[in-house]
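Weekend entry, working from home. Most of the wet-lab plans are on hold until the incubator is repaired, so I used the time to fold the two sequences that have been sitting in the queue since the last round of cloning. Logging both here for the record. First:
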Amino acid sequence: MPRYPESAQTAVTLADVRRAASVIRDSVMVTVCNESRTLGEICGCRLFLKFENLQFTATFKERGALNRLQALSPEERKRGVIAMSAGNHAQGVAYHAKRLGIPATIVMPIGTPMVKIENTRRHGAEVIITGQTLEECFTFVRSHAAEHGLILVHPYDDPLIIAGQGTIGLEMLEAVPELDILVIPIGGGGLISGIATAAKALKPSIQVIGVQAQLYPSMYNAVRGEQLPMRGDTLAEGIAVKAPGQITTKIVRELVDDVVLVSEDQIERAVAMLISIEKTVVEGAGAAGLAAVLAAPERFVGRNVGLVLTGGNIDTRLIASVLTRELAREGRLTQLALDIVDRPGQLAAVSILLAEAGANIIEVSHQRTFSDLPAKATLLELVIETRDRAHLEDVLARLGAAGFVVRET
């Protein structure tokens, strides 16, 4: 188990986190940390969820942002602040800067979800969209800040930001002292650094496990000495960081017990389960902790596990896509292709068979021209709804027994 070393204490201490808690107390919600009995039964452990997606801006990032803004001098407040963010830090900075009367400029990468851009503008910040990644944004931020005399509010590599995020750890252990393991998403590392600082000081026996998206394993690479590639569009864009912070990497190396990776399928499944079971909307990054537990339940069996639902800022269109894809994985929504003879009554025969099997037809189309079937044949494409995978297998068996050549597509 990592020890609490002097170097980590120098960067951020438990006293810093407690000080941050007093600074933000009247302006940031102490969110609930409730046990999910259903998810716990699925995972084989006691699972406690910290609902940071219920903050006013639907993200934990308010904590660090406010702690940093409150430390500005009157002269710095007058000059204004600048931040780069894929969305949640932007909203936290914009919202509290407006409350405090501080001008704010937010630089966001191309491809940031529209809901995060619009929410940031709604809080009164000037939004600049540039760069493909946070790292490219940072290059612009430095030059723009120097040109206009703005104060940088870094999204993660700042002791005040880290201390602010660490207040979540204080609240979780106060609410559930018996926690054995905390599973925390990692982007730049500010959240896990703050939580690990507080949790390890309060309860040295507790384990802290970090989670990254498989497509962006930056902290995983840093602490394990790996060189896994970083690329592509991840559902967890909030933790899609190519280079973690220097301060945060040091703290993670010293205080975090392990860093694991989760796939896009696993993240999607976690988002869908939180909606269907907990009735709560969580973005991809916020569901990463649950994804890690679902991916390796044997690691957490019988333990008291704490997860942070870090944010709920996800486009409704994306939610619909995630839920539909999960239905397909569960065998509840399936696209079929059938080779049928092109004559009257064939579609009716298929429809009757599906109805008798209890399947629901969602979409149907004929393809006579663009296929490699004989001229007297046609391709029938169907999207059907079934109860589960077993029901789907029964439907496929009935179609086959009736002489139809059918395949899932």
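Second, folded right after the first finished:
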Amino acid sequence: MTRPTAAAPSYASVLAHFDLSPYAAPRGRLAASLADMFGARLTGVAAEQALLLYDDGLGAEAERRRVERDLELARQTFLDVAGSRNDLEWRSGFLAPDRHVVEQARAADIVVVGRRASYDQIDPMLGVSPGYVVMECGRPVLVAPPEVDDLSIRAVVVAWKDTREARRAVYDALPLLVRAGEVVVVAATPSFRDEGAEDVAAWLGRHGANSRPLVRAGELSSVAEELLDVADDLRAGLIVSGAYGHSRTREWMFGGVTKDLLETAPVPLLLSH
């Protein structure tokens, strides 16, 4: 009896956040390239919360019109990026941008947001915190560095630690990993073997991925730097990682791999919590 061939994992809906920063257009083009890769719907989202004004109502109306203009500018960026694509949708709202993106993630398989490193230009009105979105949206989040406008999966680095978050990230990234030219599962450990990384590489191989484990052994000053070094050596276009294995408050106060990657990674990050 012939076994049925399993359909390749896929994403059917890509949700991309837009704001008025100079990075919104390249981020949108990256999201569009991801949607094109899977023949997925591309949904653009933006939101802004009107400032509270206590007067006779005229100021409040002017503030509402200002927010409407901002949202229209964000929509125009989305339309410029989308071009002649047909499977499109735009969703905007008068509320906190973080909350809006998290709410709209219910209609998406993967969410694309911008990075917010300390030296990046940010939009204080329409911008979102990638850390908050990762923690709250229940979907894999693709975090785009500034000016990166295409998703390359010629080589992909998977940051492996035997945690729930890392297992979730590998599973969430499976549609990309099975299409990647090479997947390297990197474990930072004092020993020279990591059975978890070997198991994950083998599991990915059973799904058709070209995968192998790699151990960075010994005492490491920075796991994030090791991951970035491997990504640079492979010329990888994507790093997949679990996010906030400790509490998010602890990571932001005392540092952590997630925080360091969000601050310094020059390539997109696919993060899951």
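Plan for Monday: verify the second prediction. The radius of gyration is 20 Å.
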